[in-house]
Automatic annotation (TrEMBL):
Locations listed in the record: Cytoplasm
GO cellular component, one term: cytoplasm
Listed GO MF terms: 3-deoxy-8-phosphooctulonate synthase activity
Claim: Metal-binding is one of the keywords in the record: no
Assigned keywords, A-Z: Cytoplasm, Transferase
Domain of life per record: Eukaryota
Name listed for the protein in its UniProt record: DAHP synthetase I/KDSA domain-containing protein
Transferase as UniProt keyword: yes
Domain DAHP synthetase I/KDSA, first and last residues per copy: 16-121
Coiled coil ranges: none
Organism: Zizania palustris (Northern wild rice)
Length: 124
């Protein structure tokens, strides 16, 4: 764990009364995500709450296979990195395959493994 991860962990652990993980479920567009990040940060700053911005580059667990899933790994990480630098916010996003972890780890401060993936077992 690097120094910035340790510092973030300490900040979130000490947050009173709590910290907030918030953002749109899936990245619809860069413009939308930046607008949401600004709005949520304005609110949490007024309330004195630490914020970790969350959105997904790929929402694989949709009720319909025809539903919009997001911009994908590469474009989604570019957008999340822009949120991170523009608004000085830590970000969290989820992964769907183990090979995504390295790329996501270069941008995200926290990697989420969705519960539906935890229950999947694949024999190789």
């Amino acid at each position: 764990m690097d120094a910035s991860s340790v510092a973030l962990y300490g900040q979130l652990k000490a947050a009173q009364p709590f910290f907030l993980l918030a953002g749109p479920n899936v990245i619809e567009s860069e413009e939308h995500v930046l607008k949401m990040a600004k709005h949520i940060k304005d609110i949490t700053t007024k309330l004195g709450l630490p914020l970790v911005f969350k959105s997904s580059f790929d929402k694989a667990n949709r009720t319909s296979s025809k539903s919009f899933r997001g911009p994908g790994l590469e474009e989604g990480l570019k957008i999340l990195e822009k949120v991170k630098t523009t608004y000085d916010l830590p970000v969290v996003t989820d992964v769907h395959e183990s090979h995504q972890c390295e790329a996501v780890g270069r941008v995200a401060d926290i990697i989420q493994i969705p519960a539906f993936l935890c229950r999947q077992v694949q024999d190789k």
